[in-house]
Design goal:
about 130 residues
Length: about 130
């Protein structure tokens, strides 16, 4: 079975506005909610027998990152939940390949990353609550 690699993208400036909007909407239903943080996760199906080399990993991180921000992509999540936090991940069904995945795979193949055969993007939410 092919490993699924995860690349986490740190929220940029416009993400803060989206988190604030999400928090306001959720607080109507969950008054204990204190904060919402988000990140994107690129879930990469890697079909090669060996894990990606340092050069291949660097290419993937460059493809998923913002050209104006340095170090905005990591292999570990930026969201570190506390014991009172809830971590949610929202994305497409695993049995359905999205058009976005098809486009990303085409770009990966054009850059020499042939072992990439699917990339699905999910949004992760860390909900901080008072108990």
């Amino acid at each position: 079975m092919s490993p699924v690699l995860h690349f986490y993208v740190r929220p940029s400036g416009h993400e803060g506005a989206a988190s604030g909007h999400t928090r306001r909407k959720l607080q109507g239903k969950l008054p204990e909610l204190q904060g919402v943080e988000t990140e994107l996760c690129y879930n990469v199906n890697w079909t090669a027998e060996a894990l990606p080399s340092a050069e291949e990993t660097k290419k993937l991180m460059w493809l998923f990152g913002c050209p104006l921000l340095l170090d905005d992509v990591a292999r570990e999540s930026w969201l570190l939940p506390d014991s009172n936090d809830l971590l949610l991940e929202v994305g497409p069904r695993l049995n359905f390949s999205t058009p976005t995945s098809t486009n990303i795979v085409s770009v990966c193949r054009a850059t020499g990353l042939g072992p990439v055969d699917r990339v699905e993007t999910t949004r992760r939410y860390r909900l901080s609550v008072w108990l």
